[in-house]
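Title: Prediction job returns without error message
Component: structure pipeline
Severity: low
Priority: P3
Assignee: unassigned

Description:
Job completed but the reporter wants confirmation the result is attached to the right record. Sequence as submitted:
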Amino acid sequence: MAADGLITRESRFTAAETLARLEGEITARGMSVFARVDHAAGAAAAGLALRPTTVVLFGNAKAGTPLMQASQTIGIDLPLKALVFEDEAGKVWLAYNDPRWLAARHRLGAGVDKILDTMAAALDALATKATAP
C-alpha cells in the first residue's frame, strides 16, 4: 500500500498517448470510462496555462457496489480515478489511489479483501499497459 494512498508511475509516452492507452485498456477489460476531466482545457478557458493534466473516472458496478455495501462513504472515492499529467521537466506520470488505502480510509472489513486484491491487480495492469512499451 502506498503510504499516502497514491501510486504514481512514470510513462514512456506523451500525456495524450498515455491517456489513450489507459482508456483503451479500461474498455478492453470490460470497464466503463464514465468521464474525462481535462484540467488543462479548463485552465485555458480561464486564460491560464497548465501542462497536460487529465483525470479519467472509470470502473464497473460489480467491483464497486460490494465496497459501497460495506461502507457507503467509499462512494466519494468511486468510481476509480486515474490522473495523467506532465510535470515541469516534461515527464509524463500516471497516478491513482491504492484500493487498500481507500479501504482503510473507509474502514472496510475483511469481507472485501478478494475484491480489493482484484482491483489492485487490475489497476497495476492498467498502469503498466498505459505507461510501458
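Comment from assignee: result matches the submitted record. The two ends are 25 Å apart (CA to CA).
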